[in-house]
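Sample entry (386 residues):
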Amino acid sequence: MDRLDILQLDALHTEEERQIRDVVRRLADDRIRPHIADWYEAGRLPARELAKEFGSLGLLGMHLSGYGCAGASAVAYGLACLELEAADSGVRSLVSVQGSLAMYAIWRYGSEQQKLDWLPRMATGEAIGCFGLTEPDHGSDPAGMATGARRDNGDWILSGTKMWITNAPVADVAVIWARTDEGIRGFLVPAESPGFTAREIAHKMSLRASATGEIVLDGVRLPDSARLPEAVGLRAPLSCLTQARYGIVWGALGAARDCLRTALDYAVARPQFGRPIGGFQLTQAKLADMALELQKGYLVALHLGRLAEAGALRPEQVSLGKLNNVREALAIARQCRTILGANGISAEYPVLRHANNLESVLTYEGTSEIHQLVIGQHLTGLSAFS
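Predicted structure, serialized as tokens:
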């Protein structure tokens, strides 16, 4: 029996969901955990190698149907995100950006030819995608994007810069969002296109085991067939973000669980003043409060998953889940560090690595403040964004 599953929430899953979870957990234990501390310290991730391994298990775009995708349930996808992020947030980011941003954009808004060209190869990990929305001066306000696309004799010319783009340095195709005379439109930009440059961002203190880059578009010429025909306006990229944020609702729980399990094991084994520190009231109070938040967050994630499977999930509900679960996961990671004392800063334990990663997860794909405003608008009917 898992001591952390106080409410026996495991019983709420189907056998298929548990089987998928267990497969991903074994993958994380065998393939990622033995190496992740070294990858993090070195600031690198064997993304292409891992993508092919993930693809062989059907994890890339697993919640999409057709075109070589697994067609798994929303909850099964969430559980996969949880187990991957329990190993490292950067690994989960590789999978969620590939499937919920790049692949979803093509699956939802692309032409049939675009789907046939890209989705089967992306599902196997043969091709890697990234999602270019954020810009150096436009993070939380994508409507202010400066990247532009103009028509030229039937083609499109793209110019601009995208920043903090996960997978960009290793991507074969970038989903780029640009301002046009027709509004915000999406384009599929092959990485070998003349004028396209992806530069890796160095010296990160968070998400070090993740390929993060800046994309520069210097007069990139594309045929009209590169345009995502069904993507019109800002609603298109925001709908992709809703997909990715849902995965984060689950993923953050994985990081929190890994921290709490580490702290619990440490507390019952570490002696001070003649007995394990887990036997002291202050330590038990910390552990109890963290277990409480972990179970509450799990219920939120599971409920959102069931809503998604019923086709009833709304963006403000995902905002609520991301706001709560990432915020609480970061608080858990920080608290677990205090239980480990000085050992909490050692790479021998995963706690501070998770805490550093969660600092990024707290702000990417919507900062906490943005999600508070989404919820506030839902409650009041008034927009505070402008």
